[in-house]
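hey so i finally got around to running the thing on that chain from the lab meeting. sorry it took forever, my laptop kept dying and i had to restart like 3 times. anyway pasting the input first so we r on the same page abt which one it is
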Amino acid sequence: MSRASLLLLWLCLSCASTARITGDFGEYRSYREYRVSTTLEARLGAAERYLRAYPQGDYQKEVRDWYVPAEKRYFKLAWDTPPRLRAYLDALPHGPHAEEVAERIGELDSRRVYAERREQRMLGHAQDIEQRLARAAEQRRGFVRELSRLIELLGATRSFAEPTSELAPELLVRLRERPPQLHCEGDRCQKVFSFSYAVPEDKALAERSIDVSLQIRLERGLVQELTLSGPELLTRLAEAISVRAVPPLNPQASAEAVGQALEIVNAALDSSLPRARCEGEAVSPVVLERRCDGVRFTVLAGTEPGADDRLGVQRETLDRTKKPHSKGAGG
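ok and heres what got predicted. didnt touch it at all, straight out
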C-alpha cells in the first residue's frame, strides 16, 4: 500500500474517532456499551451508569432523552411482575425507582408467602375433610354390613332347645372370640357391639355412636331366643344407609327412617326366611314379622324417643287354644 493510501486511511479513521481522540476514552467506552446493548434491561443499566459517571458528557443529551422515558415505562410495566422488578434492580441498582422497586418486591413476596401458606392451609383443610368423609363413609358401611350380617345369622338360627355351642360357627366367633367377652348370668347371656359413624348435619359431620346388645335367652342352658336391641337402632341404621341425619322428635322422619331400615332387615332375612313364604301380619308395636319353618322373627320399634328397637328370633310356639280353620260344614 502506498504512503498516500495509508495517509488517506488514517485521515478517515481520525474523522470517525474524533470523540475518542479529543474526548475521554472511558466516556466513549461507557457510551458505546449503551449503544451496543442487546436487551432493554442491559441498555437501561448502561445508560444509567453513563449518566451517573458523565452527567455533563458529550452524549448525555442523547442518552438522557432515551433513558428517562424508557426507565419510567419499564418501571410501570414491571410493577406487578416480580421477575421484571428483580431485573430492574439487577440492571439499575441506583435507578430513580430502585427504592420503590425493592419495597414492591418485598410486598409481593409477602403476599406470595401468605397466599402459599393460605393455600397450604386450605389444601390441608380440604385433605382433612376428605379423610374425615372417607372415614365416616367406611364407618357407616361397616355398621350397616355388620348389623346386616348379625340379622342374617339370627334369621338363619335353627338350633333352639340346644346348647349355645350348636349356634352357627360364624355367630360363635362374634360371640366368643371378638372383644368384649360374652357375659352370662343365670338364663341370659349378653354381648355388646359398639359402633361409631358420622352423618352430614347442618353442613357438618355429626358424630353418632350406638351400643347394640345381642342377648341369648336360655332355659336350663338351652337356647330359646336371640335378640338384637339398641336405642333407636332402626333410626341409626337408616341414617347410615341414607347418609342423612334423622331430625329428633319428628314423627314423620322417624317413620320414614323405620321404613328404610326395614328394607335392610328384609334383605338380610330373605335367604333364610323368604318374604313370599314367611311374611306374617305385623301388629304395632311389631313392624315386621316372619313365620315359617318353626321359627318366628319379629322387629319391634320403640314407641318413645330414645327407646330400644328390638329384633328377635325364637322357636315358634303353636297356640293350642285356637281351633284349626274350617272351610265349612262337612268341608
